[in-house]
Specification:
Elements lengths: L1 E5 L4 H13 L3 E5 L10 H4 L9 E3 L5 E3 L1 H11 L10 H18 L5 H9 L5 H24 L14 H17 L7 H11 L2 H6 L5
Parallel strand pairs: 1-2
Antiparallel strand pairs: 1-3, 3-4
Bound molecules: glutathione.
């Protein structure tokens, strides 16, 4: 059986749990406790040279890293239900939303960034929250607009969840729970959040279900 090395509050791990659940894939979870630095333990870095969660070890023992690469691999090996639309322009739009989260928002909220802001830049919690929330706002403003250019909801790109939702739903959870982020102005993102809250694959992947 596949083994997912993850941490319940890790956004990148959260994405992969959703992806595995959507595909109906069987996997067992092994916790990498980021709070105690388990991601840097030699046994784990042998699997993931970056020392980050998640890592998915496939049935044949291959260790896959980087959540988007893992999700692409999953989509290629278990095609149904698809994570990407058929039309090439739609696919580019969905990837753009996913990448706003995965490349432009999430890296700035990472534990190692928080630790640097605390230890090296000597920022207090309020400043750190404001820093993080600022990048979320920039990204969410753009995503809200991009969703509005699409085929309609309740998901980011139509009536079924895509790679965009797999990235967006965990980022909304992180924004609310870590930065007390005000989702009021984002009606389209709130529709995605509501759709995810009602979908078993998203429910079972939720950090609070862990
Ligand atoms: N781009 C990577 C990000 C992985 C990542 O940053 N994981 C975080 C948790 S969400 C982590 O392990 N942080 C540990 C640290 O910063 O030391 C992916 O998508 O897999």
């Amino acid at each position: 059986m596949m083994v997912l090395h993850d941490y319940f509050r890790s956004g990148a791990s959260h994405r992969v749990r959703i992806g595995l659940n959507l595909k109906g894939a069987a996997y067992e979870k092994r916790a990498v406790d980021l709070r105690v630095g388990a991601q840097k333990a030699p046994g784990y870095t042998a699997l993931n040279p970056q020392g980050l969660a998640p890592t998915l070890v496939t049935d044949d023992g291959t260790a896959l890293t980087q959540s988007l690469a893992i999700l692409e691999w999953l989509d290629e090996t278990i095609p149904s239900p698809p994570f990407l639309p058929r039309d090439a322009i739609d696919r580019a739009r969905v990837r753009a939303i996913a990448e706003i989260v995965a490349c432009d928002i999430h890296p700035l909220g990472n534990l190692r960034v928080v630790r640097w802001l605390q230890d090296t830049a000597q920022c207090d919690d309020a400043r750190i929250k404001a820093f993080m929330a600022g990048w979320v706002k920039e990204g969410f403003d753009a995503i809200e607009t991009l969703i509005g250019q699409g085929p309609g909801g309740p998901w980011c790109w139509g009536a079924a969840p895509t790679l965009a939702d797999i990235c967006v739903a965990p980022q909304i959870y992180a924004a609310r729970s870590r930065y007390d982020f005000d989702m009021g102005p984002y009606s389209r993102l709130r529709a995605v959040e509501a759709a995810a809250a009602a979908h078993p694959a998203f429910q079972q992947a939720h950090p609070e279900a862990e």
